[in-house]
UniProtKB/TrEMBL annotation:
<dbReference type="Pfam" id="PF20057">
    <property type="entry name" value="DUF6456"/>
</dbReference>
<protein>
    <recommendedName>
        <fullName>DUF6456 domain-containing protein</fullName>
    </recommendedName>
</protein>
<feature type="domain" description="DUF6456">
    <location>
        <begin position="21"/>
        <end position="155"/>
    </location>
</feature>
<dbReference type="InterPro" id="IPR045599">
    <property type="entry name" value="DUF6456"/>
</dbReference>
Amino acid sequence: MAERHIDHIEVEIDGVRRAVAVDLDESPLGWLARRRGRDGRSFIAPVQLIAGERLRADFTRAGMAPRLTANWDAVTRTDRAGGGAGLNASEAMLAARQRVGRAMEAVGPEFSGLLVDVCCFLKGLEQVEQERFWPARTAKVVLALGLDRLARHYGLSAAAQGPARARTRAWKAPEPPEGKD
């Protein structure tokens, strides 16, 4: 049996942080995250992988993928199944659909189609290039730009940024007089 590449990442959805297991062999993003370029860096950064997987999770939760068989979920689920943060299943689906819509609006029409194809429908880069009549290796560059924009929309960054020195806020006893320690 072939070895699977499972990675655990943490995503924030509706203010709730959750650990998510990601099968890196299933997603083109996982493949790109594992591959290294000539400079030794991976083709996509971890923050780009997290952004793409977050989009995919919302897309799946929203039920936006086409179904190939009958939907038996309504028969087997109770009203509270599949929801999070006190939402019933249909409210959770609607909320996920709204998150996908906001993300697509934030990345713009230039990147939204490519992100849906690669992140949600799991199309390979070569397939995307063939379908769009793009030159070879173009999709990788455009995907990286789209994932950067998506990560920015989600508030994700590769490095924390803030002031060089923060104001000290601490309760402490008064300083002892000089010479008395």
